[in-house]
Amino acid sequence: AQDAPYPPVATSARTPRPRTPQDSTQDSTGRPAADSEPTDRRGEDGPADEEYRTDEFSFIEEKNDESEDVIDWLKFSESRTERREEAKRRGRNRVVAGVVVLVLALTGGLGYLWSAGKLPGFAETETATDAKPDTRHVIVVHLRELGSGDISTALLVNNQTAARGTTVLLPNSLALASGEGGATTLGRSFAAEGAGATRDALNALLGARIEGTWRLDTPYLENLVEMVGGITVKSDATVPGEKDGDRPLVKQGAGQELNGVAAVAYATHRGESEPQTKQLARFGQVMQAVLKKVSTDEDAATTTVESLGQIPDPHLSEAQLGAALARLAKHARAGAYRTELLPVESDGTLSEKTAQGLVKEVLGGSVTNADPQATARLTVRDASGSRGAADDARVTLVNGGFTVVSTGAADAPAARSTITYRRDDHAEQAKEAARTLGLAADAVTKGEGAANADITVVLGADYKP
Fold first, then answer.
1. Where is the composition biased (Basic and acidic residues) (predicted)?
2. CATH match of 377-459 with 3.30.70.2390
3. 0.85 exceeded by the pTM?
4. Do 379 and 192 form a contact (C-beta atoms < 8 A)?
């Protein structure tokens, strides 16, 4: 056979149908037409590499059952792989969503605990910095005995935030700053400077805002007890009757029912050699028992106060006092009431323990103690019978650096001059005053003097101006 000018067309196992390339011309034998030229020819120097154009060949595909099965299997495999990938993707999305929800839940929970102050390690810091102070309403009450003029003082504290009440008993030895720059005591401040100055001095000492003063003279306490129908106390002492042979006004023991007269007698009773704090504690018992019987209705309590007929303090009207007593009565009836004594040091000041304890916790204040060593206040009484002696002594003492608050005549003449001081911390100043006036050192003694001064000077006939 004659060699074909081109290699035979590649075929598959099945005989393909011959297809005519679009850009070539064939004759009846299937060979290229004579006028068509191959892309590459043999060169003159030797046979060249034979190259063919791709468009000169066609592969014929024939559909059969086996190819359809292969296609179906490929489609099945592809769809199953896609489903697996989709399932994995959804699983990953669920995990991510779960983690996000968990983080948000933890963040929210921690935020709530932090804001509520329940997170360990952070509660104390938040309480210290963000907690608001309790709302308190404080009034001071002075029980004054008509005969002697002695007073018993207490603070009535209504802690509105904590829903509890407290009576804080104040000893008369409590050191206060006087209006003249010196130091005085609670007992003498009320007698010499009045209720308003005493309230201001207590505010300065305790750092508490005392809203007003309730001066409760003993006859008014008697009437108040009668108005509430009497009180019941646990008596720690037997109070004798007014006259020898009379039945005791109050018997010792629990469940003692007291009328107005008996309540006053018990509140002011001070046994022989007893400190003033014992009598003060009895006054506190009476006040708490009265509050348990006062009406919790503010209008009714105000009516009770008005019925007493007292002259109200300018800073505390009858309506304000009635409302305050009604609120305290609610605490007393609910069992959320207590009575506490303010501990006072020997020099009249308050200790750091008291400042951080009762004063801070109950009153919400901070202590600023009066200086017990401050310049003492002196009063001069002339018992020498020499005109002008008191004025001369006053000038001498002022020039010596002392504070003289008053001068005047003594009740009776005296042959010998005396200088009396109340507190031990004023002993040296009393001796210095004696030296300044040219008096003997033995003229100085400790004892009771004028109510408005720390040191009392009585000029006798031995005083030489």
1. 38-57
2. yes
3. no
4. no
